[in-house]
Write a structure and sequence with these properties.
about 160 residues; two-stranded antiparallel sheet; mainly alpha
Length: about 160
């Protein structure tokens, strides 16, 4: 079982570490004013401080108003059903690229998790990969990761 206090604390510590990393890295870029205007690290520095402040607020609120139990074992199981396929999706992107990985992920999510028809799942998977390609590669001209498979085929 996961208590509200432990979940709030873990989330606040993770977001706080991210905010601290943003603050520290923005110091390398310089904060404040220079002869050219605002230094490039000023905006990330302010954003990092905002994230840190929000994390401290969430940590205090989590300790003051914690619910005893948030996730029971059955709920953790349902959460893991969503987490593990997502982790595999992220892990295979360097191998096969984002387009086939997203197609497999959408297909698996619709066919297995939602227990939909295989034809609908396949059409949605192809549509998702095609939409990613059209939006990023053609419209915005941003190359998404193609993975070792894309490199092997010369993309």
């Amino acid at each position: 079982m996961v208590s509200g206090r432990s979940l709030e604390s873990a989330t606040a510590l993770i977001t706080g570490a991210f905010g601290a990393a943003v603050v520290v890295s923005s110091l390398d870029n310089g904060i404040g004013w220079s002869s050219a205007g605002v230094d490039s690290g000023t905006f990330p520095f302010v954003v990092g401080l905002t994230i840190l402040a929000g994390s401290v607020f969430n940590l205090v609120q989590g300790w003051l108003h914690a619910r005893p139990v948030i996730l029971r074992p059955s709920e953790l199981r349902r959460l893991s059903i969503l987490f593990f396929p997502t982790a595999v999706f992220v892990g295979v992107i360097p191998l096969i690229g984002i387009y086939p990985a997203s197609a497999f992920y959408v297909f698996g999510a619709l066919a297995w998790h939602k227990r939909g028809s295989l034809l609908d799942a396949a059409l949605a998977a192809i549509g998702a990969a095609l939409a990613l390609y059209l939006i990023f590669e053609l419209t915005f001209q941003i190359s998404l990761p193609r993975g070792m498979l894309g490199t092997a085929f010369g993309f």
